[in-house]
């Protein structure tokens, strides 16, 4: 067995012929399941759907809907992804409204009341910041196993619970409602933000722009508390933080509605995933004496499906631009004299070669 040859850039070149040998994985082969339908619609084997939610091709979703999904993600990331990092703006508001005054008024005398309140408020932000970063791991696992819609719904739940705790009257709850509420707001951010990254695969030719919009929305979301503080000062403190967070409940409600009505249940396939599916070789042609009418119809349907897949890939990826980039890269490969030097070596020969050892050392 030898290591598979890979292209130096991700571009769609051709649909392989039937004579090409299969690669190591048999995942994309349809299961041999008895069916009375000569044209089965399901091209994904049951084994592939066992654990993770399977990704969807970008061309399987209308363009207008993909545009709407990207716009919706940027919109709610702007209001929910990183609002806790606007702590510097909301901290003066919380202090003016007496946050932690009851906790610090009966202190032990080691620190004054103002310092005690500062410590509690800073602890609130520290816990939220740590929670935001730690949440990335479970968000990734949930995204892989349940899809972006579940992440979006969880984000709405976290934001709702956090807003209610932030708006709760002080002293009514037996725990620190501000700390718990701010932490829940922080947890809602990664579920909103990280689950939106896969939308860059909805338009592979514009993936950089989409990621830039999402990243910019995340950074800009911290300005939400700044806007609120300006409103608070303009109204002379009448629009308190409890009223603000009650009004903020509109945001998780909108996120929930968008997740159900607009946003994808499954993540979009990467460019590499779509190309790998298209380059999967067709099954070997059966001898003439083993081909009946049903088998011929199935083979014809599979060829038509592959041709349609190739056409859709060209539409999504842009064949002209891809061919130009591929030609430029091929010229670079020829000039370098290094590309392809180990393509015909076995896996053991490649691992024992100086090329592999140097790559490991510099990695």
TrEMBL record:
<protein>
    <recommendedName>
        <fullName>Major facilitator superfamily (MFS) profile domain-containing protein</fullName>
    </recommendedName>
</protein>
<feature type="transmembrane region" description="Helical">
    <location>
        <begin position="209"/>
        <end position="232"/>
    </location>
</feature>
<dbReference type="Pfam" id="PF07690">
    <property type="entry name" value="MFS_1"/>
</dbReference>
<feature type="transmembrane region" description="Helical">
    <location>
        <begin position="119"/>
        <end position="143"/>
    </location>
</feature>
<dbReference type="GO" id="GO:0000329">
    <property type="term" value="C:fungal-type vacuole membrane"/>
</dbReference>
<feature type="transmembrane region" description="Helical">
    <location>
        <begin position="67"/>
        <end position="90"/>
    </location>
</feature>
<keyword id="KW-0472">Membrane</keyword>
<feature type="transmembrane region" description="Helical">
    <location>
        <begin position="244"/>
        <end position="262"/>
    </location>
</feature>
<keyword id="KW-0812">Transmembrane</keyword>
<dbReference type="GO" id="GO:0022857">
    <property type="term" value="F:transmembrane transporter activity"/>
</dbReference>
<dbReference type="InterPro" id="IPR011701">
    <property type="entry name" value="MFS"/>
</dbReference>
<dbReference type="InterPro" id="IPR020846">
    <property type="entry name" value="MFS_dom"/>
</dbReference>
<keyword id="KW-1133">Transmembrane helix</keyword>
<feature type="transmembrane region" description="Helical">
    <location>
        <begin position="150"/>
        <end position="167"/>
    </location>
</feature>
<feature type="domain" description="Major facilitator superfamily (MFS) profile">
    <location>
        <begin position="66"/>
        <end position="363"/>
    </location>
</feature>
<comment type="similarity">
    <text>Belongs to the SLC43A transporter (TC 2.A.1.44) family.</text>
</comment>
<dbReference type="InterPro" id="IPR052599">
    <property type="entry name" value="SLC43A_AATransporter"/>
</dbReference>
<feature type="transmembrane region" description="Helical">
    <location>
        <begin position="179"/>
        <end position="197"/>
    </location>
</feature>
<dbReference type="InterPro" id="IPR036259">
    <property type="entry name" value="MFS_trans_sf"/>
</dbReference>
<keyword id="KW-0813">Transport</keyword>
């Amino acid at each position: 067995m030898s290591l598979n040859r890979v292209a130096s850039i991700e571009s769609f070149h051709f649909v392989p012929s039937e004579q090409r040998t299969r690669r190591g994985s048999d995942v994309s082969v349809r299961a041999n399941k008895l069916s009375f339908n000569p044209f089965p619609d399901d091209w994904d084997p049951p084994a592939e759907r066992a654990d993770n939610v399977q990704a969807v091709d970008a061309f399987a979703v209308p363009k207008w809907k993909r545009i709407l999904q990207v716009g919706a993600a940027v919109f709610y990331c702007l209001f929910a992804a990183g609002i806790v990092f606007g702590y510097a703006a909301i901290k003066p508001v919380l202090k003016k409204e007496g946050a932690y005054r009851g906790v610090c008024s009966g202190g032990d005398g080691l620190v004054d009341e103002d310092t005690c309140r500062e410590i509690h408020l800073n602890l609130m932000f520290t816990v939220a910041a740590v929670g935001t970063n730690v949440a990335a791991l479970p968000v990734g696992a949930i995204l892989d196993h349940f899809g972006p819609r579940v992440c979006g719904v969880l984000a709405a739940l976290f934001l709702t619970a956090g807003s209610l705790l932030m708006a709760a009257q002080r002293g009514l709850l037996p725990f620190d409602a501000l700390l718990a509420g701010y932490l829940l707001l922080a947890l809602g951010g990664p579920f909103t933000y990280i689950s939106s990254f896969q939308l860059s695969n909805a338009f592979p030719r514009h993936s950089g722009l989409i990621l830039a919009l999402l990243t910019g929305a995340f950074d800009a979301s911290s300005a939400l508390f700044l806007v609120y503080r300006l409103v608070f000062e303009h109204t002379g403190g009448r629009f308190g933080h409890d009223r603000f967070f009650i009004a903020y409940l509109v945001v998780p409600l909108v996120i929930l509605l968008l997740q159900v009505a607009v946003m994808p249940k499954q993540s979009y396939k990467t460019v590499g995933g779509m190309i790998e599916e298209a380059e999967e070789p067709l099954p070997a042609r059966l001898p003439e004496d083993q081909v009946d009418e049903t088998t011929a119809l199935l083979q014809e349907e599979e060829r038509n499906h592959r041709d349609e897949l190739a056409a859709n890939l060209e539409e999504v990826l842009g064949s002209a631009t891809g061919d130009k980039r591929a030609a430029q890269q091929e010229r670079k490969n020829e000039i370098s004299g290094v590309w392809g030097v180990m393509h015909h070596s076995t896996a053991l020969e490649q691992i024992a070669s100086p090329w592999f050892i140097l790559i490991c050392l510099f990695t």
